[in-house]
Structures are given as structure tokens and as C-alpha cells.
Amino acid sequence: MIEQAGLDAPWAMVVFLTLPALLSLPAVWVLRADYAQGLRPLLGGILAGVAFALYAAGLLYTDVVRAVLLFYMTPIWGFLLGWIFLGDRMTWFRWLSIFVGLVGLVVIFADDTGLPLPRNAGDWFGLISGMFWAVGCTLILTERRVRILTHAVNFLLVGAVVALLVAGIATVQEIATVPEWPEVRGLMWWFVPVAVILILPSSFATIYAPSRLNPGLVGLLFMTEVAVATVTAAIWAGERFGLREAVGLPLILSAGLIEPAVMAWRARRLA
To answer: Which of 201, 163, 153, 127 is nearest to 44 (CA)?
Structure first.
């Protein structure tokens, strides 16, 4: 809808990320004591913001399904980081989750080489954003010197800055053109409520989850987005939804359900 208002995709991404960031700016003054502690305590939200913007950029430069699924290799990086730095156990069901998720990726991405390798800039954005997200989640989980709201504000502000850089590069490459102010002003009347009602609360929820859970588990639970992205991309973007997607998608979603299912089964046995 933003693109239909006259903005090219990279600048549509800027609007999507910048308006919520501007709305969150007053919180910086309230949270100023957290910002006075230096860069290290703030890195979790900063890296998560970089990840979010790169992920959004990946959606512009490759198929939606490819960008989403490459991002959702996050559980692999997250479980390994939790194992190495947090001392979390790598249980059999976590290894199984990683295996099932990778099989799903191979099924969907397998080409003539049989390997789901990134093939363009959008694919690499999706893959690298997942790595940044896993590191950011690990830092958010372990850093207690700043408030969760501070990480959420940084998430939005840094995401907006990176989105502006991506749009600027796209403009220099003549992939996009800078929008005119009347075009931007014309979409504000409906996009401001979207930002307030949908984007700001979901951004806080996105950052709150890693403050309580292992980053690998966060990645697995977030995999529900894969189903939404795959189906909506097929409906609204005309992207392919064939046999590979029909087989690989349930596998990837199953990877996200294995650990919660095992934990629920164990709790039921102990009850």
C-alpha cells in the first residue's frame, strides 16, 4: 500500500521503520540514565535493529519466502550461542529441531546443486540478519543494566538508520528514486495509526521475548512467521507455492514446535 502511494520499495521500507522510530523518540529522554552507561549495555537492541532492517531489505531484493527462511536459520545460531556463552544444554530435541529445520530449508531451496545456498543480495541480507538477530538476542538476555524498553527504542532507531542507508544505496544505484513530500504526506493519515496500533506494540513484544528466553527458542517460536509470509506472498505477491513449499513449510514449522511440545509433555507427566 505504501508503494501504491508512490514510494519505491526501499523508501517504503524507510517509512515503515522511520515513523515508529520517530514516535519512540520521546522515550529516549525518559530512558536517559540507561544511555549514560555507554555502548556495551545497549548493543543487544542495536544489533537487533540492524538485523530487522537487513531482514526488511532482504524482502526487497529476493523472494519473500527465501528471505524469511534464510533469516530463520536463527535458531541454529541462537542455540549455539546459548550453548557457548550461556551454558544452556544442547538437548536431543534442540538438535532435532535444528535438523528438521535444515531439512525443510533444503527441500524448499534445493536447486540443481542440491544446496540451499544464497544466490543474490537479498538472500545474503536474510542470512546475515539472522546471525545479527541471534547475537542481539543473546546480549538482550544477558544484559540487565538497561531496561527492555531501552532495547526496544534502540531496535527501532537503529533499524530506521540502516533502512535509510539501504534506501540511499538503492537510490544511487538507480533502483529507487527519492519520494516527493506530497506522496509521503498523503499516506500519513492511515499509516500513523498502523504504526501506533501494530508496529510499536509488536516491536516491543519482539524485544521482550529475547529478554526471557534462550535466543534459539525465540527463533523457533518466531518461525510461525514463515507460514504467514509464505501464504501471503503467494496470495498478494504472486510468488510460487508448489510441492517444495508444501513439503518444506510443515518441516520448518515443526522445528519450531518440537521444544515447546516436549516441554509441555514433560510438564504433563510431572503433574
So the answer is: 153
